[in-house]
Amino acid sequence: MSWKGIHRWLGLTVGTLAVVLGVSGAILAIDPVQQAWQAPAAPGDLPVATLVERVTRTVPGAEEIRHLPSGAVVVFSFAGDQPQARYVDPTDGRVLGDWQASALPRWVKNLHRSLLLGDAGRWGAAGIALAMALLCVSALVLLLRRMGGWRQLAARVRGSVAQRIHVVAGRVVLLVLCLSSITALTMSASTLGLVALDAGTEPDVLSVVVSQPALPGAQLAALQTLVVQDLRKLNFPGATDPEDTWKVATTQGQGWIDRYSGQMLAWQDATLAQRVYDWAVVLHTGEAAWPWAVVLGLVGASVLLFWLSGVVIWWQARRESPHITGNAPMAQADVLIFVASEGGSTWGFAQTLQDALRQGGHRVHTSALENFQTMAATRQVFVLAATYGEGQAPAHASRALSHIATLKASDVPVTVLGFGDRQYPTFCAFAVALDQTLRGQGWPSLLPLECIHQQSGQQFARWGADLAKALGEPLVLEHVPRVPATTALTLISRQDFVGISGQSTAILRFAWPAQSLGARVLGRGLAQFAAGDLVGIVPPGSAVPRYYSLASGWQDGFLEICVRQMPGGLCSTHLLGLQTGDFITAFIRPNPGFALPSKRKPVLLIGAGTGVAPLAGFIRRNDRLAPMHLYFGGRDPAQDFYFGPDIQRWLGEGRLATLHTVFSRVPDGGGYVQDALRRDADAVRSLVAQGAIVRVCGIRAMAQGVVEALDAVLAPLQLSVANLKSKERYAEDVF
Fold first, then answer.
1. What single-letter DSSP state applies at residue 323?
2. Which of the two ends of the chain, N or C, has the fewest CB atoms closer than 10 A to its terminal CB?
3. E-assigned strands of 297-379?
């Protein structure tokens, strides 16, 4: 079973009981905090003999002094037949008030220690602690895999709301949870009798009765050299038993002191097991350090957050789990499709490909990549491979490359189609490695490697057209993804532009209906969104959503996009035909890789045409007035300077530091944005040297031109776009 499988299975099966222990532990953490505030702590260097002298002056008949983990001192005595326990001020022995054991309900402790099931429950609690330790180990492995290693552990977390909550919270408290689990196991080992803490049978010691009176406690040599910091408990000798001794318990062990001579009669060192247990108690309960108890309480309460977010993640993954229909037996199939998918969405593309091939008369079998092989009937093989983390294979296909490397190549073509996100420096790295391995082994290919960005249905359809030509048969790939729940959005305003070629463009603003927290976490309705995220819109007459970059965030109170008429574009035609008051149905797809980090670093924004939309959204929300520098490219300032008045206003407000515009279809317009970057090479280099974040949005040709220009500009700094991407300082949104 993979680490992911172990983590998921333990989380779902043991998670509920772990929540009970975590929440009850959080409640018990109140106790050390309460104790710390009830009485002053004794000075650590105070001699115990001095403390005894002060106590005996103020508390007649004292029988025991106890130094609590909080540092407070409690004296036990009798008033007649009534036992008393009172706090004393160690500086003068003054009685401060009655001491009572924790007021927390006893059943909370029993619930935490034994699940209210007695001895059997103690074994159960120990089992849960062991499962939690394994859960923490698996979580650490998955966290490092997801973030790309230790160096990237503090990087920005991408994913759904539930995933971000799960990962960010885990990154903060995972080590404390692991420590809590290990200390719980240590304590359980002694409670269940698996480890003996005592040094052995107590020695049979008695004071030698002499004619002289017993020494006062303040004059006992053994107590004069012992400081309160090391004291745990001191028992006075019985007044009616002349052979009774003083008994002292410290962090180092326990001893028996002669009441007449003041000498130590016997001593037992604390065992290693006892010392380990004592440390485990401190680390698990925080009883000797109330700030640590607060941390433990918060971590214990976080278990509920982990469990809830984990259940949501599991439910979302289950909802997207593959259900391939129409599979022919592998031995009889002339086309084999193998899939490597982490989240499950790639299986949907495999189903679309399988259905299209079956309509063409092929017998098709689809399976996971780890089952890669060819049969006698096989004529074509397709591999649909997603990339996970920092260029890794999805968990279930982690050994697929090594398996394929052991196979003897045949003349059956194996075509690889990759799926990934260009915001990641290792875009489709697993698909690339897979394709290289296959070619190195000698497997032919029907088509060269193609990489699909952000599960683009349009790009998949274009690949399908190329595949149809290569096969020499009709084939249409119209992938219909599983569309999330949509929300109705009403158009409240629009700004229209007429381009040079007559293509209409409009900035459309829709009212945003606020969503509850539950809806956002579960992915229902219209989630919170930020500039640079994508809004998915399903146009009438199609089941395939089209995506538009957002020029606003939810804090703005509206949803805004910039739409240009595409030749034959079904969705752009629909949107540009809307009038104020009309509505659309839409959903949000997060684009966290394009979002700006919350750092006050310079920001270099580069956009052309409608690609300025998300960049305008960044500037709009620049409330902290971080230095933002915009390079905008269009054709004619009179026709396609989108967001122009807003940009000018933001420039005056300080939300935008500098503006550089170029227009390619007017005299002396400056050409293209890449030309402007080359002209401003010194300023661009200076910004990047200061740690600038770079965001690029526009058509693919423009983005490639920007990459080439920046590589040349940054060469004197021994930097490149690839370097910036590896440090998550460069991201692009291309279409």
1. -
2. N
3. 335-340, 364-368
Element (H, E) at 660: strand 658-663
Q: Which amino acid is at 384?
A: L
Give the chain's length. 735
The residue among 688, 676, 575, 672 whose CA lies nearest residue 633 is 672
Question: Whole-angstrom Cα distance, residue 177 to residue 284?
Answer: 10
Closest among 649, 672, 654 to 662, alpha carbons compared: 672
Classify residue 156 by its DSSP letter: P
The sheet carrying 414-420 orders its strands as: 364-368, 335-340, 380-386, 414-420, 450-453
CA dist., res. 383 & res. 558, Å (int): 42
Helices (H) and strands (E) in the chain, counts: 23, 24
Angle between helices 118-147 and 106-114 (to 10 degrees): 70
At 146, phi and psi to the nearest 5?
Answer: -70, -40
Walk across the sheet containing 487-498 and list its strands.
546-549, 534-537, 583-589, 487-498, 504-511, 558-564
202: number of Cβ within 10 Å = 12
Q: What is the pLDDT of residues 701-727, one digit of tens each?
A: 999 999 999 999 999 999 999 899 888
Contact 650, 623 (CB under 8 A): no
Tens-digit pLDDT profile for residues 660-676? 999 999 999 999 999 99
Alpha-carbon distance values, 229 to 39, 69, 261 (Å): 16, 10, 24
- Copy the structure tokens of residue 141: 């492995």
Q: Kindly report the backbone phi and psi dihedral angles of residue 29, in degrees, each rounded to the nearest multiple of 5, phi listed first.
A: -65, -15
Task: Dig out the tokens for 596 from the structure.
Answer: 């700006």
